[in-house]
Amino acid sequence: MKKYWKLMVLLIVSALIIPACSNTADNTSNGRKVKLIKNEDQVYVGFLIDTLKDARWYRDKKLFEKQVKDLGGEVKTLAANGLDDVQIDQAKLLIEEGVDILVVVPHNAEIAAKIVTMAHKSGVKVISYDRLIANANVDYYISFDNEKVGELQAKEILKHQPEGNFAYVGGAESDHNAILFRQGAMNVLKPLIDKGKVKLVYDQYTNEWDPETAKKNMQALLKKRGNKIDAVIAANDGTAGGVIEALDTAGLARKVPVSGQDAELPAIHRILKGTQTMTVYKPISKIATEAAKLAVHVAEGKKVTTDTTINNGKINVPTILLEPIAVTKRNIKDTVIQDKFYTKQEVYQ
Ligand code: BGC
């Protein structure tokens, strides 16, 4: 039954997304690798996204697809609704369709290693997008400096609350980024924890990055500690939203500083309202555009060099890391508005 349900999700999600690719033709491969685009000379890129639940991934998808097309390539995006089996099946599907390269936002860092093994067997290279695939021969990795994201969050919160009872509300443990965000925050908090200035009274990951779970966890924490929470470092805007709802019910919104990440529009509005302290803006246009260029170039067999490498437990993966930017009330104009991430009207509506 579970398998049937997952298959249905795969089919529905594929059906929703496939029409975006106008050039695709019917698959008559019978398992053979046949390139399913009309122009055989065109590079065919497969983009596998974990989920479209958080708003940012729509932007990644749109900008990535546009850049591949601008470079003369064809692209198909599939999202797995946070299901590992579905993501693996989707990879299989795209490999059978003859993609030249796979770009993957893994749901689970470890499980997605299977995708790399499968792709390599068919001569398809794999780029890990935003999140690192662990313990696999990943060809390239492109992301933001994720440890710095956590550092920016903790530093900004400390400006508002330099001591007291802190809660760390992490992301999904299955996402390698969540580990790095936490690591970054702890780099900043550790000296203060050691001095006894900051007491870490909560330090948990949040299953699937789910805002509702973050809210429930915060409600339980507030109850347990009789509302004695002084600051919250939430790993992204989704979890921050859940935390702030819980704080609001307890009459603590605006009193307890809360961080976030992704510069989601509701988070920008909360920052203006004063219920969220900061978010981290990661220029999605940069990662999407650079990843698309990388994918097309690698698929065309061009040599690509990167500045750095990151070890994923198996190899040193050639890596491109982009800079995240802290956003507070003070610099909304100079960041997300200046970059046209949002219009003035959207921000100040
Ligand atoms: C991304 C974040 C995002 C989170 C949940 C992370 O891997 O880096 O930008 O908020 O996943 O989707």
Automatic annotation (TrEMBL):
Cellular localisation: Cell envelope
UniProt GO cellular component terms: outer membrane-bounded periplasmic space
Record keywords, A-Z: Signal
Claim: Signal is one of the keywords in the record: yes
Segments forming domain Periplasmic binding protein: 45-303
Pfam families: Peripla_BP_4
One function term, GO molecular function aspect: carbohydrate binding
Signal peptide span: 1-25
Keyword field contains Methyltransferase: no
PANTHER family: D-XYLOSE-BINDING PERIPLASMIC PROTEIN
The protein's name: D-xylose ABC transporter substrate-binding protein
Organism: Weizmannia acidilactici
